[in-house]
Structure of Aminotransferase-like plant mobile domain-containing protein:
Amino acid sequence: MVWLLNDVYDAEHRAYFMSEKKMELTPLKIRSHGASSVMHYDERYTPYIEMAGLLPFVQLVSRSTPNLNAAAVTTLIDRWRPETHSFHLRTGEMTVTLQDVSMITALPIEGKPLWMSTDSEGLRHQMEALIGMSPQETEVEDGGKKDRVPAGATFTWIAANFAHCPEDADDEVIQRYARVYMWYVISRTIFADGTGKNAPWMWLKALTVLDNKFSWGSAALAYLYRQLDDACRRTTKDGGVGGCMLLLSVWSWERLPVGRPKSSKWNTWDDHDNPVRQPTWAYKWDLVSEVASEVNLLYKQYTNEMDSLTPEQVEWEPYGVGTNFGDAHTFELNALCVQERHLWLMRCSLICNWAVEWHLPHRVLRQFGYFQPHPPEWVDTDTQLHRLDRRRQRKIKD
């Protein structure tokens, strides 16, 4: 597999520093968060969230999110290769695919690519037109301006101004609060960035027209791939990883024994007699046991366990096979989880604004119940595309 490695990626890869330079690295910090209890979900938001195609996912993360394990996530990231968009394990390549996006999040795959200008020129006027207000820039005593955070608003500002929709609000105001609620949630869960403090303007801009029929699922996977591409080359103590960590964690828990928590119990699920609000596969991990051990010790333990992993320990098809596919046994699975199964094996580009990544399911056919040829057909993931960040100037280092 040496021919797959690219010096552009390998020179700063965490695995290189650990194996060749014998550095002891620490686990990355998880930047992805839950929806937070400070933002109240109002049932009046529901039709607008459903219109946007986000209702099953928002229903999932607005209730609660399980405890995530930074040591286990980092152990996977150490084995991520941007060249193939897959984890290179002793058992063979594995990765998160569109199948996992559907089953775990029920985000729509079919639709328009999530692509738009991310220019923040005229940001304040556009934001005020959409949600009625915008955060003020902070001035320092000498009259100058402080360095601004990335275009958008802090989560604290959003919560302070939009936590509760007024009881007597008309449809226009309810829609405004619903739009902000979605902006807040997707910025903390699907598109979490390196800071963990700011909701970028571009995700609110994507909600300008609620029935735009975006392919949120492919955008979520593109963003996760890009976050993993960057995170596998972060070696500082404060380095972190964003993207949809709930998606990655549930994917790992279903397939790999390393870092798998015990599912303790489930909170009662209320679908409000709406099939679109039925649970996704992630509901299996609604409440999980907390990690009690020290994170650095766990990181070493998980690394050793991953290095000795055998194919027999891997659950290659966790969602079932044949007529039993998607049968969760204990609850009724949301029909949207399997509705787009005809798209799961597409070899295609995944687009999320500046992040364009390849979906390469032919490299992990065993996850779909098929024979895996070796070596799989090579597809160039293009190092130049990976050099683009949302500022289109330089790589983000955190």
Summary: Residues 391-398 have pLDDT under 50 and may be disordered. The CA atoms of residues 153 and 199 lie 5 Å apart.
